[in-house]
Amino acid sequence: MTREKVMNQQTVVIKSNKYGITLFLDKDTEFSELLKDIGEKFKASSKFFKDAQMAIAFEGRILSQEEQMDVIRVIQESSGLEILCILFFFSSRRRHTR
Questions:
Q1: Which residues contact 49 (CB under 8 A, 6 or more apart)?
Q2: Using the 8-state DSSP alphabet, how is residue 81 labeled?
Q3: Separation of alpha carbons 27 and 46, rounded Å
Q4: What is the CB neighbour count within 10 angstroms for residue 92?
Q5: In a 10 Å sphere around its CB, with 0-12 CB exposed, 13-18 middle and 19+ buried, how is residue 53 labelled?
Q6: Contact status, residue 96 vs residue 86, Cβ threshold 8 Å
Q7: Nearest-5° angle of CA 14, CA 3, CA 18?
Q8: pTM of the model as a whole
Q9: How many CB atoms are located within 10 Å of the residue 20 CB?
């Protein structure tokens, strides 16, 4: 299944990467709704993530620094996962960085 098909079905998708996780966020969903969906998704996975430490990357949507911190707060409160840093990827694929 392509990333586009996945995103058409869900507002938040978690994928692993070499250093931790990439969070694919729907660009058209209200940010407050995304936070709610992120909380639900990580709460459902809390046993898997409990006490883990990893990096995070964001795709699909440009987030301000404040929004990034809000997302990390929700993840940590919902799952016990500790986010150590935010990754930015530079490649020929279209990715947004801040």
A1: 42, 79, 80, 81
A2: P
A3: 25
A4: 5
A5: exposed
A6: no
A7: 50
A8: 0.81
A9: 19
- The answer to whether the CB of 97 falls within 8 A of the CB of 90 is yes
Percentage, residues of the chain above pLDDT 90: 67
Collapsing DSSP to helix, strand or coil, 85 comes out as strand
- In a 13 Å sphere around the CA of 57, the CA atoms on its Cβ side amount to 17
pLDDT of res. 49: 84
Quick one: three-class SS letters along 36-62? HHHHHHHHHCHHHHCCCEEEEEEECCC
Q: Which amino acid is at 52?
A: A
Asked if residue 70 has pLDDT above 80, the reply is: yes
Residue with tokens 């996780």: 21
Contact between 59 and 24 under an 8 Å Cβ cutoff? The reply is: yes
Amino acid in position 24: F
Of the chain, the percentage scoring pLDDT greater than 70 comes to: 82
Tokens of 40: 């639900």
